[in-house]
Write a structure and sequence with these properties.
It is a single chain. The chain is an all-alpha fold. It has one domain. The chain has eight helices and no strands. The longest helix is centred in the first third of the chain and has 30 residues. The radius of gyration is 17 Å and the shape is globular.
């Protein structure tokens, strides 16, 4: 039970932090809530979260296939190391060049808001590598095994963590809107620091293996 709680907490936190910085998905969820009502914004967020869970499952499958070969563990960790390094630099550069900008808002009707959320989340190409890297880290830390319950916990935590961040945007966007630029810059710095910490932890595990 404690094992599952730890896995859920760390994955939920990682998913939440990855969804917090203002971007296409959460800003569309917020604008949909403002223009079409909170219920429609929540439905849109559910569509996004559903796709993220599908992508998290794909990431688990990829890691599982590779991990069947013991010699691949080192490759998995090095891949995670590369992913975390790239993301750390990317988030840091995004924070450095942050300036007022208008994020494209996609018009969403109540009828297709769920599927619009699915579609927009599907075009985010970083999701699968991100969760693959997390999966490799959690596996090396002993927080996840390739068992059904662990996989379901990982996928569920990825979806709920992402949904919670989107939900906060749909509810509190009016309060955040005037602080979007500052919030975006700070959250990108925090994410960059998080990726750096994961990079250091992964490096230590590689050196000790």
């Amino acid at each position: 039970m404690i094992h599952s709680l730890i896995l859920f907490f760390v994955t939920f936190s990682a998913a939440f932090m990855a969804t917090v910085p203002p971007g296409l998905l959460n800003m569309n969820a917020a604008k949909t809530s403002v223009k079409k009502g909170k219920l429609n914004g929540i439905v849109f967020s559910l569509g996004v979260s559903t796709m993220i869970m599908i992508q998290a499952y794909i990431a688990v499958v990829i890691s599982k296939l590779l991990f069947r070969h013991p010699e691949v563990l080192d490759l998995l960790l090095k891949t995670a190391l590369f992913i975390f390094a790239i993301l750390a630099v990317a988030f840091f550069m995004a924070a450095r060049r942050e300036k007022a900008k208008k994020i494209k808002i996609v018009k969403v009707s109540k009828k297709n808001s769920y599927f619009k959320g699915l579609l927009l989340a599907a075009v985010n190409l970083l999701t699968i590598p991100y969760y693959s890297g997390l999966n490799a880290m959690w596996r090396a830390s002993g927080w996840i095994n390739f068992e059904l319950w662990d996989i379901l916990t990982f996928i569920g935590a990825a979806g709920t963590g992402s949904f919670m961040a989107l939900y906060l945007y749909t509810i509190y966007f009016n309060r955040l809107e005037s602080k979007t630029d500052k919030f975006s810059k700070n959250s990108n710095y925090i994410l960059s620091l998080l990726m750096l910490v994961l990079f250091i932890i992964t490096t230590i595990r590689i050196l000790n293996s």
